[in-house]
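User: Is it possible to get a 3D structure for a protein together with its bound compound? The compound here is NAP. I've pasted both below.
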Amino acid sequence: MTLPKTYKAIELPAYNQNTLRALLSLKLVEKSLQEPGPLELLIKMEAAPCNPSDIAFMQGGYNVQKTLPTVLGFEGAGTVVACGNELDDAAWMGKRVSCFTQKDKDGTWAEYFMAGLHEVIPVAAEMTAEQASAFFINPFTAFGLFEIALQRESEAIIINAAGSRVAEFLFALARQKNIEIIAIVRKAQTAATLKEKGIREILVSSDANFAAKLKETAHRLKATTAFDAIAGEMTGTLFNNMPPDSEIVVYGGLSGQAIGAISPLALIFKNSMISGFNLNDWILYNGQEDFEIARTSLQNMILQGEVRTSIQSVVPFTNFAEGLRTYLGNMSGGKVLFQFD
Ligand SMILES: NC(=O)c1ccc[n+]([C@@H]2O[C@H](COP(=O)([O-])OP(=O)(O)OC[C@H]3O[C@@H](n4cnc5c(N)ncnc54)[C@H](OP(=O)(O)O)[C@@H]3O)[C@@H](O)[C@H]2O)c1
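Assistant: Yes, that's possible. Here is the predicted structure of the complex:
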């Protein structure tokens, strides 16, 4: 295969707290294609999703900061088209891989992505580019979070922002282990969608008596682990209304607010705790063997139809602005993917 000298990419020139302004500042740029270093793989990208972390990154509100301008995108999927000279060509060339990087380098929203060896997971031939593109971040996050509920022997778990892709995978993992779910969403429409998918206990956070309903449901089902992607006052509401000996694992900050509204009495007398979860740390802490177990198990779940990342639309990457608007207007509707073919 002859590789081109240049390729197109979606570049962020500067951080901007205002999401719309950040979006309007994005540029389609032409970059020159480099040869892979000795341990690098050149990926011809097929698809890449937009995640909440990409939005937070554009706003300069994420824990990852890069040298600007930079090509956006933390994950995606594509095929290996060139290998570093210390790598086995036969093992890599033509393989479809999922990619993930948070390093200070160009990201995945581009026709080509230069990956380090630990930034790719080879996927099964039957895995579609669409599912592979959203495989590395959310499914593994759900897997890592769910391990906490298992270790804590919780009979039920609480999931907020439950219209999300992480929640989709948590639902599937909980179903496998017969663990009850309490799903919290902020829109009646999302509640209706989850009901159609068979989720029984759904609470809408904008309901007037939300806290009382949460308390009743969490105590009745003995929900002692909560996965919180929202933070702000939501964390306090969870903390104050969960049974004693509970843990809230904060893994997202979608509210953009500091954690608050925690009752001091609950803090003193309930023997409960709030912890944090970060996928990168989970991968580093658990090591290669556990990662392989997670990879095989998640991939099998997808291939056997137990779960999939919902995708609401696939847009040519040159229409990135339209794609981002669609995603921001209806995040619960599923991922918007940029297509690079
Ligand atoms: N810590 C980690 O390592 C890690 C790894 C992966 C993901 N995450 C986090 O996991 C969360 C879910 O990611 P995802 O890609 O699965 O999301 P997603 O599929 O894009 O969906 C986002 C969900 O969040 C809801 N939401 C957005 N803003 C909200 C707010 N202010 N209050 C309540 N709900 C809100 C949306 O509901 P509407 O439709 O109502 O807007 C939607 O259901 C994000 O916070 C992400 O950053 C963390």
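The chain has two domains: 6-135+309-339, 141-279. The mean pLDDT is 97.
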